[in-house]
Q: What sequence folds into this?
């Protein structure tokens, strides 16, 4: 009944859903980065430096997530 | 009720209310929990009654049970690869629970438990803990090499490692937010257009004719929502398998 899914990685579906997924990846990485920086700042009392640093890390991680979404995965499929 | 007051109340459908009388209220047993129990019961019934016949030529229920089994098995086998079979029960449970949650929510008067971030984040957190535990159990300390790719210059470590850690920690967030946002958006749209039907229908002589437009939109939306309900469960299962692949093979 169901076609066997091809090992194409996380990216499949209509362009709207692909765009939505890319957006979610960026936003979630940013949220995690900002939250991490904020808590580290509160813990170490270094406001706002770690917050700003982890904001950058979160942005880079978001771009990295989107890059991984669009690049073919290493080791995907059945070859191993 | 929303249409009579002249405003669109699209969010009250996500409110939790206790069920089963005073006992349910005392333990905080909401309709969300009731639908989870219903989904778990339906999945168990599908597998148990579906496979009870063990016919060579499957009946309707048996072919449904077999199709769902083979579908998830295909995902796990193709994505996790070597050594992925032992994770099949885990992924199958997640897939069926999310799928039944999404699908049950499309019935009138039903509640969509996957439309609550607490539920989807709980599921995503289970996935996150499992993949981290699997990676640590299989690779021990080598797991931490995952955050620093081989061959990269060492002076880049202060940049690469935090970025990779944030990227890794963002997995449960993106996994849960994707499912939650899709479900909420779909149900809000359905509710908004359903309210339009009632509001336009009260417009006097032309009302019923104009009201067929949002009604037609809702008919289309329901079909689309069934697709989204399946697709999101599929995405949840496939991403879990991809994360498991990373945990097993560490690359």
A:
């Amino acid at each position: 009944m169901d076609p066997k899914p091809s090992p194409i990685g996380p990216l499949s579906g209509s362009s709207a859903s692909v765009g939505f997924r890319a957006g979610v990846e960026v936003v979630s990485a940013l949220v995690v980065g900002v939250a991490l920086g904020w808590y580290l700042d509160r813990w170490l009392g270094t406001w706002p430096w770690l917050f700003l640093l982890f904001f950058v890390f979160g942005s880079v991680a978001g771009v990295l997530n989107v890059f991984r979404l669009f690049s073919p995965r290493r080791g995907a499929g059945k070859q191993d | 009720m929303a249409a009579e007051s002249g405003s669109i109340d699209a969010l009250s459908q996500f409110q939790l209310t206790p069920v089963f009388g005073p006992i349910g209220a005392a333990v905080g047993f909401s309709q969300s929990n009731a639908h989870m129990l219903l989904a778990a019961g339906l999945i168990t019934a599908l597998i148990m009654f579906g496979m009870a016949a063990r016919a060579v030529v499957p009946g309707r229920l048996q072919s449904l049970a077999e199709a769902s089994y083979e579908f998830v098995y295909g995902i796990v086998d193709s994505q996790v690869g070597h050594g992925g079979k032992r994770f099949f029960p885990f992924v199958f449970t997640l897939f069926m629970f999310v799928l039944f949650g999404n699908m049950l929510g499309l019935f009138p008067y039903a509640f969509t438990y996957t439309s609550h971030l607490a539920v989807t984040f709980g599921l995503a957190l289970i996935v996150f803990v499992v993949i981290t535990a699997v990676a640590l159990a299989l690779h021990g300390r080598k797991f931490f090499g995952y955050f620093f790719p081989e061959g990269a210059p060492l002076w880049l470590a202060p940049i690469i490692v935090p970025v990779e850690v944030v990227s890794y920690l963002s997995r449960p967030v993106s996994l849960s937010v994707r499912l939650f946002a899709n479900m909420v958006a779909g149900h809000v749209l359905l509710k908004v257009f359903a309210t339009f039907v009632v509001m336009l229908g009260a417009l006097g002589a032309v009302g019923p004719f104009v009201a067929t437009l949002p009604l037609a939109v809702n008919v289309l939306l329901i079909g689309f929502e069934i697709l989204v309900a399946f697709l999101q469960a599929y995405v949840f299962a496939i991403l879990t398998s991809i994360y498991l692949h990373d945990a097993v093979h560490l690359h």
The radius of gyration of chain B is 22 Å. The mean pLDDT of chain B is 90.
